[in-house]
């Protein structure tokens, strides 16, 4: 019952706060604010969502390996992140030292307030029905964003995966890394421990975020690089959340 009440309060808090933040982002766009300035507004709401999850629901995070992130204002990176829940979509912009751009399906742009807000940011939205053209757009926009110091983030499994399971890793992220020359940063996240996939009720606890060492992409084969990323992330997930993998190894 307590978890239900806390989850309801947090959802209500997010629904109420996203309206003024979206309004400010839209007004900022009309007033000529830069992409960096609009991102900063959105980042504040995402950080607020993460902080409120800690205060209201008791969900906190611990970061391991932050020293593995590239240094420098324009150092490029492609973040390939384990995807178990909505939590990491809020958390990554809140904790990363660079602005990040998600690659997402354009249908999300029509989601009230949330979609309207991300439509005003420097993100990469694609039409997944046009695969070849969609990837060409990802590469084109990815190069532009990386040159400005914006990191590109992708979920290689493509969708949220239940705790203790592994999805099919796609090579889009590694192909982008090879095309742009940016290193790949694998990231393991145990969010489903507290915020299960597609679940309304969340539970207090700790979400571990483990950042791996950069993997150079120059001269690599995309499929081979994808397998290396998958092996690191899934091995790290088993290390961080061993009870979720009992009987599955």
Helix content estimate: 40-55%
Q: How do the helices and strands follow one another from N- to C-terminus?
A: HHEEHEHEHEHEEH
Number of strands: 7
Tell me the overall shape. globular
Radius of gyration: 18 Å
CATH architectural arrangement = 3-Layer(aba) Sandwich
Strand order of the largest sheet: 1-7-6-2-5-3-4
Number of domains: 1
What's the CATH class label?
Answer: Alpha Beta
State the end-to-end distance.
34 Å
Unreliably modeled segments: none
Q: Per DSSP, what share of the residues sits in E-state strands of 2 or more residues? A: 5-15%
**Total of helices:** 7
The mean pLDDT is: 92
What about the largest sheet? 7 strands, mixed
What is the CATH topology descriptor? Glycerol-3-phosphate (1)-acyltransferase
Helix-and-strand structural type: alpha/beta
Can you describe this structure?
- There is one protein chain.
- The chain is α/β, with parallel strands linked by helices.
- It has a single domain (2-245), classed as Glycerol-3-phosphate (1)-acyltransferase (3-Layer(aba) Sandwich), CATH 3.40.1130.
- Helices cover 45% and strands 14% of the residues.
- Strands 1-7-6-2-5-3-4 form a 7-stranded mixed sheet, with helices on both faces.
- Helix 4 (114-118) links the parallel strand 3 and strand 4.
- Helix 1 (2-30) runs antiparallel to helix 2 (35-57), helix 5 (131-147) crosses helix 6 (172-180) and helix 6 (172-180) crosses helix 7.
- The longest helix has 29 residues, at 2-30.
- The two termini are 34 Å apart.
- The mean pLDDT is 92.
């Amino acid at each position: 019952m307590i978890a239900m009440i806390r989850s309801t309060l947090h959802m209500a808090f997010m629904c109420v706060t996203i309206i003024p933040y979206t309004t400010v982002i839209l007004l900022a766009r009309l007033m000529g604010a830069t992409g960096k300035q609009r991102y900063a507004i959105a980042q504040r709401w995402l950080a607020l969502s993460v902080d409120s999850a800690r205060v209201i629901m008791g969900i906190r995070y611990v970061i391991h390996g932050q020293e593995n992130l590239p240094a420098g204002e324009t150092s490029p990176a492609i973040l390939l992140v384990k995807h178990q829940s909505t939590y990491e979509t809020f958390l990554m912009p809140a904790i990363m030292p660079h602005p990040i751009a998600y690659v997402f399906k354009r249908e999300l742009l029509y989601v009230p307030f949330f979609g309207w807000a991300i439509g005003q940011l420097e993100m990469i939205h694609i039409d997944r029905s046009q695969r070849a053209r969609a990837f060409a757009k990802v590469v084109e926009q990815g190069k532009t964003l990386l040159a400005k110091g914006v990191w590109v983030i992708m979920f290689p499994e493509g969708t949220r995966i239940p705790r203790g399971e592994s999805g099919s890793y796609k090579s889009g992220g590694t192909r982008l890394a090879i095309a742009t020359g940016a290193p790949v940063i694998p990231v393991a996240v145990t969010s489903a421990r507290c915020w299960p996939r597609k679940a309304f009720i969340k539970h207090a606890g700790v979400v571990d975020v483990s950042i791996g060492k950069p993997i150079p992409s120059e001269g690599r084969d995309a499929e081979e690089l994808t397998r290396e990323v998958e092996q690191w992330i899934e091995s790290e997930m088993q290390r961080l959340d061993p009870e979720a993998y009992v009987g599955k190894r």
